[in-house]
DNA sequence: CTGAAAGCGCTAACAG
DNA sequence: CTGTTAGCGCTTTCAG
C-alpha cells in the first residue's frame, strides 16, 4: 500500500496523476499548502499517492521555487558540548519550520575555505555559523552574495552579518566582581582562541573590571577552547611559583578540564584552594563532581533568536543585519569561593548579582 | 571580480556561456570532472565564470542525475559525546567525498516518525542512523524503497540494513572477566535503553560471562543512556543496603555521570571502594579526574567503515547488506580495581587481555 | 476549481 | 571537441 517494486525509483506526480485520472498540476496542488482543490479530487489524489508511495521531490521543487529549504550550519569540530547542544536545538527548531540542516564541520586544524564553495553550491537558503573561527571575510562574502548569515556565539567587527551572542562583556565583568567580592588574591584568565571575538570580549570585560579594582597583574594562558589546551594552560598556571587562586576560563568546556587537572593532578580543593569559573552553563557543569560556577548562555533562547532571525530574513521583511544579545546569569555552585552577600535563588539555581553598594563603572 | 550586484541571484550556466561566447553545454562540461574541453574554451569559460561568480547549481544537477549528493544522518539528541565525535568525523569524511550531510536530530522523548518523510522527500542518496532508537521498521522501510542504510553503533534483528558496530558482546564479556579477575564481590549493570540492541548485547555478554563464573545475583538499573538517568541509577545502586563494588555502565557517558555521583555524593574512592567501567572510550574518560576504565570503540575506523559501505553501495558494486564489527580493547585506567596479571601497554594506553590460563567458554 | 503549457538550471545523448 | 535538442519533476501562470 506504500510502494510498488523494491528498487523502483520514486513515484512522480505524473504517475500519481495518471492513476488518479487528473492532471499533474492537480497533484501538485494537493501537496501545496495554500492551494484550492475540490475535496473529491483531493481524495482521489491522496489515495493514488499513498498507493504509489509518492512524496513530492523537494529537489525539483527547489529548482523552481529557488529555495532549497536547506539551512547550512557550520560547526567547529572541537568536541565542545555547548555546540553539540546548540546544534541539536537548531536542528530540531529548523525541522519544525520545514527546513533541513546541512551540516559542515570545520576541522579546527585544517583550512576551511572550501566550505564556502560547498555552501554556495548547495544553494542553502541561509547560513548559521556556530562560533567558528572562519575568517571574518567568509561571512561578508556570503552576505554580499545575498545569503542571509547569522553568527551564533560570535561577532565580526563589521556588522555585515547578524549575530546572536551572550553577554560576554557583562558576564565576564560580573565574574570579576564575584571573584573580587570573595576576596581572591591572584587572578588568571584562560583564553579560548586568539581570533575569537567571544574570548576577546570576555577577556576585556574580565581584565578591565579587575583593573578598575586595582588588580595589577593577571596571569594569562591560551587554551584554544579545547580540553587538552585547557589542561596545559592550567598546569602552567598551577605549577608556577605563585599560582593563582582564581581562574576564569573562557568557556565551560575548558573550565571542566581545568577542574579535572586541579583536583586530580594538583590535589586541590575547588572553592577553597582555588576557584575556577566558566562561561556557558553546559549541562555537565551541574554534575556534582564539577559543580561549576559559571555565567550562563541560554542555548534555548539563543537558538530561538537565531531561528527567528533566519525565518524573518527568509520572509524578506527583516533588517539585513541584527545584533542580538541574550541575557544570562551568574550561576553559583561550588567550584569557586562564594562572597558573603549577593546570593539568591532562582529556578532552582543559586545566582549572584552585584550588591547595590558596590560601584559599577560604565 | 567575483560577483555582479549584491542581491542579484546567482549566475547561471547560460549567462556564463553568453559572456564566454560558447554554448551552455560547453560551460557544463568545464564543470564536469571527466569531460573533454579544448584548453582555449575552458579558459574562456573559467574566466567568464569567475567574473560572474558562477557556481554550478547542485539542485539542478541533482534533478537530472537523480543524485542529491546528500547523506542523511540521524542522531539522537541526548548529548552523548560519542555521537558528537562520530557526527563530526562522518561530516568531515563525507565532505571529503563530495557529499553533504543532512542532519536529523531525534528528540529522545518525542515521536520521530515524521523524520522518515523528511528524509525521503529530500531524496538523500543514503542514510546513516547513529544508534538511534527509531523503530526498526524505519530502516527496513528505507531499504525497501531502495535507499542504502547503514546503522552506526546499532543493529536490527533482520539484517536488511548494513551495520557498523563495536564488539559489544565480546567487550562486555571481557569487562566481566576483568572485574572477576580483580575479585569483586557484587556486580551491577546500568543499561542504556531497553530497545537498544547495543545495550542488550553488552548486557548479555556481561551477564552470561558472570553466570559462567557462578555469579548468581547481578543488580540492574536502566540509565536510558542519559547522564541524569545514570545518576539516578547509580544513586539507587549505591544507596542500597548491599551496594555493588563493580558497576558496568552501558556506555561512557553514563559511566562518567556514575563516577561523578559515586565520588561527590557518596564520597567513594574509585578503584578501591567501588569500580566503574564504561564502553566507548570517549575523550573525557581519559581526563585525570575520571580516569575511566572502558572498552574502546574506535570512532575513526567505525566512521571509515561506514563511509566506505555507503560509497560502495552508491557505486552500485556492493552487497546490499554488510554487518561490520570493529575491534576494540579494554583500556585500563584507575576507575576500576586492577587484576594482578594480564596488563600490558599499547599506544600509550594500558590495556588488559584475558590471561591464557583462564577458561573462556564459547 | 482544473488542465495545458512554459519553464527552473542543468546534464546527456546526439549529430556535426 | 562543440552546439543542438531533450528532458529531470515540479510549480506556476493562464485560459477554460
Automatic annotation (TrEMBL), chains A, B:
GO molecular function, one term: transcription cis-regulatory region binding
CDD domains: HTH_LacI, PBP1_LacI-like
SMART domains: HTH_LACI
Top-level taxonomy: Bacteria, Pseudomonadati, Pseudomonadota, Betaproteobacteria, Burkholderiales
Cited Pfam families: LacI, Peripla_BP_3
Superkingdom assignment: Bacteria
InterPro entries the record matches: HTH_LacI, LacI/GalR-like_sensor, Lambda_DNA-bd_dom_sf, Peripla_BP_I
Species, as recorded: Pararobbsia alpina
PANTHER family from the UniProt entry: LACI-RELATED TRANSCRIPTIONAL REPRESSOR, RIBOSE OPERON REPRESSOR
The keyword Cell inner membrane belongs to this UniProt entry's keyword annotation: no
Keywords linked to the UniProt accession: DNA-binding, Repressor, Transcription, Transcription regulation
Residue stretches making up the HTH lacI-type domain: 11-65
Name of the protein in question: Putative HTH-type transcriptional repressor ExuR
Amino acid at each position: 500500500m506504500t510502494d510498488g517494486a523494491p528498487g523502483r525509483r520514486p513515484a512522480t506526480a505524473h504517475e500519481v496523476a495518471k492513476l488518479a485520472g487528473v492532471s499533474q498540476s492537480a497533484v501538485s496542488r494537493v501537496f501545496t499548502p495554500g492551494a484550492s482543490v475540490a475535496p473529491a479530487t483531493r481524495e482521489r489524489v491522496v489515495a493514488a499517492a499513498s498507493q504509489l508511495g509518492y512524496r513530492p521531490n523537494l529537489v525539483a521543487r527547489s529548482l523552481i521555487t529557488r529555495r532549497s529549504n536547506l539551512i547550512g550550519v557550520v560547526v567547529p569540530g572541537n568536541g565542545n558540548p555547548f555546540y553539540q547542544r546548540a546544534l541539536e536545538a537548531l536542528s530540531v527548531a529548523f525541522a519544525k519550520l520545514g527546513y533541513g540542516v546541512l551540516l559542515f564541520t570545520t576541522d579546527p586544524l585544517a583550512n576551511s575555505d572550501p566550505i564556502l564553495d560547498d555552501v554556495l553550491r548547495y544553494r542553502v537558503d541561509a547560513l548559521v555559523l556556530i562560533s567558528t573561527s572562519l575568517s571574518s571575510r567568509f561571512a561578508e562574502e556570503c552576505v554580499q552574495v545575498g545569503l542571509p548569515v547569522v553568527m551564533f556565539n560570535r561577532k565580526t567587527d563589521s556588522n555585515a552579518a547578524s549575530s546572536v551572542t551572550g553577554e560576554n562583556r557583562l558576564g565576564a565583568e560580573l565574574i570579576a566582581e564575584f571573584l573580587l567580592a570573595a576576596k581572591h588574591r591572584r587572578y588568571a584568565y584562560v583564553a579560548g582562541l586568539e581570533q575569537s571575538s567571544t574570548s576577546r570580549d570576555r577577556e576585556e570585560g574580565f581584565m578591565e573590571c579587575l583593573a578598575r579594582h586595582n588588580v595589577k597583574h593577571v596571569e594569562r594562558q591560551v587554551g584554544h577552547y579545547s580540553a587538552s589546551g585547557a589542561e596545559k594552560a592550567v598546569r602552567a598556571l598551577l605549577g608556577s611559583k605563585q599560582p593563582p587562586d582564581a581562574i576564569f576560563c573562557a568557556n565551560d568546556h575548558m573550565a571542566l578540564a581545568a577542574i579535572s587537572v586541579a583536583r586530580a593532578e594538583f590535589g586541590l580543593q575547588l572553592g577553597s584552594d582555588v576557584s575556577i569559573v566558566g562561561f556557558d552553563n553546559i549541562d555537565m557543569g551541574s554534575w556534582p563532581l564539577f559543580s561549576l560556577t559559571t555565567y550562563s548562555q541560554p542555548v534555548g533562547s539563543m537558538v530561538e533568536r537565531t531561528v527567528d532571525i533566519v525565518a524573518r530574513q527568509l520572509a524578506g521583511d527583516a533588517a539585513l543585519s541584527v545584533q542580538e544579545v541574550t541575557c544570562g546569569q551568574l550561576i553559583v555552585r561550588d567550584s569557586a569561593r562564594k562572597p558573603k552577600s549577593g546570593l539568591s535563588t532562582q529556578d532552582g539555581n543559586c545566582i549572584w548579582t552585584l550588591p547595590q553598594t558596590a560601584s559599577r563603572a560604565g
